[in-house]
Amino acid sequence: MKIAILHDDFSITGGGEKLIGLMAKELNNNGFKTDIITRNLSGETLKIIPNNLNIIDLNEKSKEQDSRILFKRLELKGYDFYIFSGHNCIYAAKDHKPNMLYNHNIPYSEFKSESSKVNKSKEWLDSHDLNQRLELMGNPLIERIWNRILTFKKRFIKKNLPNSIAYKIDRARYLISKQTPIKDNLQLSTHYQNISQIQKIIVNSKNIKTKVKKAYNRDSIVIYPPIETSKYKNKNNKDYWISINRITPLKRIELQIEAFSKLPNQNLKVIGNIEDENYYESLKKKKPRNVIFLGTISEEKLIKELSECRGLLFTAKDEDFGMAVVEAMASGKPVIAPNEGGCKETIIENKTGYLIDNIDKDKIVQKIELINKKLASNPNQYIDLCKKQAKEFDISKFSKNIIKEINLMANNRSSYSGFKLKPSNKSPISQRSPF
After folding, report:
1. Continuous segment of H or E residues that includes residue 353
2. How does strand 33-38 pair with strand 55-57?
3. Which region holds residue 318: left if phi is over 0, alpha if psi is between -120 and 50, else beta?
4. Cis before 140? omega within 30
5. CATH classification at residue 210
6. I want to staple 383 with a disulfide (CB 3.0 to 4.6 A). Which of 235, 332, 366, 422 is the partner?
7. Does 214 reside within a domain?
8. Integer distance in angstroms from the first to the last C-alpha of the chain?
């Protein structure tokens, strides 16, 4: 069976991109033939995904800037099954079946409670938050104009303007987006129409399963993201902690910096792609000497850093799953995280780490000191329990469950509307497609 995996964007180096890479690798290892179809493939992303994958970068075939239009115009040929991953690629779902969506998150889980007041926190600077809101607007022209402005700003302005002015540009975009009403009837939105073309929804956590039911009134199946646990090692604890996250406000990295400002004898290494330049610059101004940013690093180096750290500090707000948490536990390292989102499904309190209610810098400091004290008396305190818990998310379980769902759909086509297998001997991209 030949499978097309469509993923929104490969310029980001996050858990979603790791998952898609591992999914393709496992399907190939189990007799399937897969292509990853995406855009904005970057060298940074190639550092974190398996080698020898067949990746088709749509940027090489089209000058279209709007991802949604690009995916909507796709007409893929020669595939027997389609797996979608993201919110833009599902614009292609109507014409590509049988299909399933691996749902990492909900772009607007609180759309019903959206108020006219501007969020006073700086979270609205996060580009994901803004673009997700733009998806809900009823005016496609406004969506395209403001996304083009963002692209222009990123390419030509941000390096030449003072942060204060760039900050005001983002705020202006957000305030204007707030003035455009969200449609009251979700069924009228394009996003909902696209979701209705998805025949099966797989989610990465119980957290997202609940949100999918609330947002779309659709049932879904939980298949946790995979990790190759055998790759991760545990070595002697050195004098540093690890933080793995994209550099964006929703990860609340300022809490980490504030905590380590109170721990001058402890060190923190922050690993992850710089997604929000303004936020990153503000963090650099605040950080003490014992905090360093490593940017995106190779999988090999990440495994080494995890093997020698004391533990993982994770502060993301209502994280959908949190792959870094499982990676740390696979290395036998304890995790400090907020008692929110997917962390509640992965961390065993007081055994593989600590979940903090209403997380703040002082509570983080307390847990770091507690773990340091326990490691001082027993360096192997957390190893066995952490590794055991990480095996619950091993690649073998993920592979088995994904293949099971694919085969169920392939063997019961009559249960899913619109099933029509594509011929397998034609070019993957139709002549009618825009490239």
Report:
1. strand 353-356
2. parallel
3. left
4. no
5. 3.40.50.2000
6. 332
7. yes
8. 26
